[in-house]
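User: Trehalose 6-phosphate phosphatase. Structure?
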Amino acid sequence: MRLLRILPLVLLVSRSPARATATSSLVKRSYITTSGNFAAAAGSCSSSNKMPEKRVVPVISSLEDFERKLPGYLNKKTPLALLLDYDGTLAAIADNPKNTYMNVDVEKLLNRLAVHPQIFLCIISGRGLRDVQSRIGIKGITYAGNHGLEIESGDGTRHDYPLAAELKNHYAPMVKELINKVQKNGAWVEDKTVSLTYHYRDVPADISEEQKQLAIRIIESHGYRVSQAHDAIEAKPPVNWHKGEASLLILKDRFGADWADKIKVIFAGDDNTDEDAMRFLQGSSKTFRVAADPEIQTYADFRLPQQDLVEDLLKWIRKTYTD
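Assistant: Predicted structure:
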């Protein structure tokens, strides 16, 4: 991959000083230019001129459903880019992310697809880069950690979103304050060096909301952006960079600016942070949202009502490309 080719330009832009006195002003000044250049490097939101919209989408509930509802989408002569989330997608959600693992069958399928010459495999996770690499354990594929802020290709080429020094200086104090004030009653802080996740799944219901709101205020006071996850909140740098932008950058770098005309793309994820990728890929791929809620509004093309249906998704791909 050639991900580093755009890095010097972005690093040059990111050196522009931000002289805000308040944290919120610092955030607004420091990232408007940097994020704009990354977005330009990645490309436009979709190959379609129509603005993506969330809606209730068709359900796929079996291996046969993939074949019935997507006839002819996959072709073994056409390269496939397979972009997958980890937690809640390849692996079932656990009470603690340290206890989240793929089952043996999914692991075997993924390893088999990873070595196919027509399949480009990329894992895009909210976990830190090294964490998700250790969980998957497949060498020679592309990984994106921290929602795409860290990207490493199979040959070891790195691409890290350049964050302004002013914001970086707020990260450690934010982690310390969260640990001191709200890491209690079963809640804990997952420090991912670039972003963090505040887990409150085990906090008693009668104090959960109050503790969560305090965590949000702490995060925002340090200039970081809050987003909701499964019984957790994400604290991310306030930049216009996410799984959607990262997906476009990875595809464009690997297959060229006209990637949508040359390959098939599949993306699967289960969380709100995955909706960014589904939105940016709408109209140029097939995307799948893992969600039990029959009324959920999503940018995805299809809903998978159970996490274990991701295994059927991989079997469908294997049947086309390897059987």
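The chain is about 40% helix and 15% strand. Residues 63-162+243-321 form a domain with the Rossmann fold fold (CATH 3.40.50.1000).
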